[in-house]
Amino acid sequence: MSKVIAAISMSLDGFITGPNVTREHQLGDGGDVLHRWLETPDPRDIALLEGMAGGVGAVLMGRRSYDLAEGDGGWGDAGPVGPAPCFVLTHEAPAPETVRAPGVFTFVTDGIRSAVRRASTAAGTKVVAVHGGSAAQQCLAAGLMDELQIHLAPVLLGEGTRLFEHLGGRIALERTEVVATPNATHLRFRVVR
């Protein structure tokens, strides 16, 4: 059975984007600093990235993430991790003729549980990578997340999109790994059920 895992870069004050997110500035104003650890990675950052990328079998994401990055100027004819199948949570699927990579993207309109079930089936024994704040919040709130990886950037953004809003209550985590590099502190947690 596949694991459902979110791996997200975040500021010390809990933001995963800066304010004013647009298609041209998908991390918002000043949010690029969150991914600085990817630009000049330390060998430990590289090892962590290689370990994450090879294990992804499917992606679960929200509609806003899809709208911001699909097609020209975004991922092109693939998803956030290449050709892996992507399941997009949405209230309304776009017209089929507007989807640039219909072989990659499946639109799920019947809720988070259905989306996780479909992504898990597609992933097989590999990981379902949760992409974006809304999808991660929904998985956590529904008790469907297995693991949370936070790449903590040494910055306070002050505003933007928070990762831990709309959870609906307390969620217990068990820290399983900490990797500190000059660029970020990488934290791995198992979600306790």
How would you sum up this structure, described in words?
This protein has one domain: Dihydrofolate Reductase, subunit A (3-Layer(aba) Sandwich). With 193 residues, it is of the alpha/beta class. The mean pLDDT is 91. The protein has an 8-stranded mixed beta sheet, with helices on both faces. Strands 2-8 form a two-stranded antiparallel sheet. 36% of the residues are buried. It has 5 helices and 10 strands. The longest helix is centred in the middle third of the chain and has 12 residues, at 112-123. 22% of the residues lie in helices and 28% in strands.
Task: Provide the descriptors you would attach to this structure in a database record.
193 residues, Dihydrofolate Reductase, subunit A, eight-stranded mixed beta sheet, two-stranded antiparallel sheet, 5 helices, globular
CATH level 3 topology = Dihydrofolate Reductase, subunit A
CATH 2nd-level architecture: 3-Layer(aba) Sandwich
The name of the CATH superfamily reads Dihydrofolate Reductase, subunit A
Mean pLDDT: 91
Q: How widely separated are the two ends?
A: 17 Å
User: What is the CATH level 1 assignment?
Assistant: Alpha Beta
Instruction: Return the domain count.
Output: 1
How would a crystallographer describe the biggest sheet? 8 strands, mixed
Shape: globular
Measured as a percent range, the helix fraction is: 10-25%
**Structure class:** alpha/beta
Number of helices: 5
Report the portion of residues in β strands: 25-35%
| Secondary-structure element string | EEHHEHEEHEHEEEE
**Strands ordered across the widest β-sheet:** 5-4-3-6-1-7-10-9
CA-atom Rg in angstroms: 16 Å
Contiguous runs where pLDDT drops below 50 for at least 5 residues: none
E-strand count: 10
